[in-house]
Amino acid sequence: MASSLTCAGIVWAFLSFLCAAASCVGFFMPYWLLGSQLEKSVSFGTFRRCSYPVRDESRQTTVMVEQCGRYASFQAIPSAEWRICTVVTGLGCGLLLLVALTALMGCCVSDLISRTVGRVAGGIQFLGGKCSRGQGTGT
């Protein structure tokens, strides 16, 4: 397997993959905000939540569902801002993965990544990083 990447390019490819994987894991895990409600530990992320309250209409009370799961639909995400965060962060993680996997393929295939492709990939990676940067910070 031949590669047209320099040593710096190979390091960039592996670091890109590690950062993309970490961003995706952070995006999919429901542990952005931690707290307690009804004396139970709760946590949630942009589209997943653990231990959440549900209204029990038959008993006219609120009960805690002690399991992790996604919101039933995109519209069930609590606010428009939260939905925008989900889309933008997911898009950023997707861009990071696209660049990282392309860079890893560049380690195995000669002439896949030229100087121009590397610059474009760096720009896409910058955009993906900016999109996924605000995870859990409110920015």
UniProtKB/TrEMBL annotation:
Q: Where are the transmembrane segments?
A: 87-109
Q: Which domain of life is it from?
A: Eukaryota
Q: Where is the signal peptide?
A: 1-21
Compartment(s) of residence: Membrane
**A GO CC term attached to the entry:** membrane
Q: In what way does this protein cross or attach to the membrane?
A: Multi-pass membrane protein
Q: Which UniProt keywords apply?
A: Membrane, Signal, Transmembrane, Transmembrane helix
The protein in question is named LHPL6 protein
Annotated organism of origin? Mesembrinibis cayennensis
- What gene, per UniProt, encodes this protein? Lhfpl6
